[in-house]
Design goal:
Layout (H helix, E strand, L loop, with lengths): L5 E8 H8 L2 H4 L1 H9 L10 E11 L6 H5 L4 E5 L11 H15 L5 E5 L6 H9 L3 E6 L4 H9 L2 E4 H7 L55 H12 L6 E2 L1 H7 L20 H11 L3 E5 L5 E5 L1 H5 L1
Parallel strand pairs: 1-2, 1-4, 2-3, 4-5, 5-6
Antiparallel strand pairs: 7-9, 8-9
């Protein structure tokens, strides 16, 4: 059975990436685009179907339009709104478009932002709260990059994208129709002879009654501390259910299903409300959709 492709949107900050990769970024659009579609950043995962592909650049880079239009990538020419010479408004435009498409594109599963700019952390978190997975890029070991890696669902490292620009999609083979298999003809067996009925077997004693399973106990204090530690990378942000779930995978016995889901609390909402009562660094807020979300308040606010 074929796996469903992830419905994704691709937003590319051209000015940011051309400074890292140079001319090959334009010359090899087909290579890195195929790499993204084939899920090169998500080993073992499904492929992507891009519902939208868009690149953002300043007017001086418009000569590169044929390289991207050839592969169905829309172009948005940004304006110079910053003090730096030739600096564009790409980060603002990408942020606005990402938020708008989260409402306009139905059944959007994922948004990929190709940029090493950590300013996109807030908009990616907004998408996560709407249950849209996010993919970003990271480079180096500074604090913003480390925080970015912890928050996004999947990250593309600079070294990985270097490989992506040399990616060649494997050729697919052609398969014929189903091969008819002939079943082996077994020799006919003679009909079995009638046998006298066997005497009834003696009744076995009933097995001893098993004790009812003991309901497991969970260390909610440790779990709340673990959630707060992970949430510290995105202070004051509404954390997505997926983000919190990923942070709790190390807790022994943690499960979202079964007889004792969500650390015995029964639901995600009840669990994060317990966390907020246990750990003063955490609180619970309600997002626009009405759902509850965990928020990291920090030591200063908690005091």
């Amino acid at each position: 059975m074929l796996r469903r492709r992830i419905r994704s949107a691709l937003l590319v900050d051209f000015d940011n990436l051309i400074s890292k990769f140079g001319a090959p970024f334009c010359d090899r659009v087909e290579n890195w685009l195929n790499w993204l579609e084939d899920g090169g950043f998500d080993p073992g995962g499904p492929k992507r179907e891009f519902l939208l592909k868009r690149v953002y650049w300043f007017t001086d880079n418009d000569s590169n339009r044929p390289f991207f239009a050839k592969h169905g990538i829309d172009v948005t020419v940004t304006r110079a709104v910053k003090n730096k010479e030739k600096a564009s408004s790409a980060d603002f435009d990408i942020t606005i478009d990402a938020v708008e498409m989260s409402y306009k594109i139905k059944k959007l599963d994922e948004v990929i932002i190709l940029s090493f700019d950590s300013d996109f952390l807030t908009v990616l978190n907004h998408l996560q709260v709407k249950d849209i997975e996010v993919v970003g890029m990271a480079y180096g070991q500074d604090r913003p990059a480390k925080a970015f890696r912890r928050l996004v669902d999947r990250v593309i490292e600079k070294e990985e994208f270097d490989i992506a620009m040399r990616y060649v999609r494997p050729k697919r083979g052609f398969f014929g129709g189903a091969i008819e298999q002939q079943q082996e003809q077994l020799p006919e067996r003679p009909a079995p002879r009638a046998q006298a009925p066997k005497p009834p077997a003696p009744r076995q004693p009933a097995p001893p009654q098993r004790d009812r399973p003991v309901r497991p106990t969970f260390d909610l204090n440790a779990a709340a501390s673990l959630a707060a530690e992970a949430a510290a990378s995105a202070p004051s942000a509404y954390l997505s259910k997926r983000f919190v779930t990923r942070a709790l995978e190390k807790v022994e016995g943690f499960s979202t299903k079964g007889g004792d889901p969500w650390l015995g609390c029964g639901s995600y909402e009840l669990m994060i409300e317990r966390f907020a009562k246990i750990n003063p660094k955490l609180s619970v807020g309600r997002v626009a959709s009405g759902a509850l979300a965990l928020i990291y308040r920090g030591a200063s606010e908690a005091a």
